[in-house]
Amino acid sequence: MEALEAFAALAHPTRLGAFRLLVKAGPPGRPAGEIAEALGTPAPTMSFHLAHLERAGLAAARRDGRLVFYAADYSHMQGLIRYLLEDCCRGPQTPNQRK
Length: 99
Fold this sequence. Notes:
Oligomer: single chain
Mean pLDDT: 89
Largest sheet: 3 strands, antiparallel
CATH topology: Arc Repressor Mutant, subunit A
């Protein structure tokens, strides 16, 4: 399930911190090196975490020369929020509730 993968990705403190930075950066995103520096994480470790966010659909990468920029995937994030509000929290429904 997509939601589980996304929530699992955000369950790690480094990935959650990176995602927060990406959301604050907006659509232009931030270079991977800046994210690593801001979080005090070695570049190879940060690359691993950013790739994890990308696989989970929470971030997208783009290359600009030698730099790799990451940006939050807002449409996926909105889908997760919609899932939490509409699908996840309804719980099991009885036949009478489905009407």
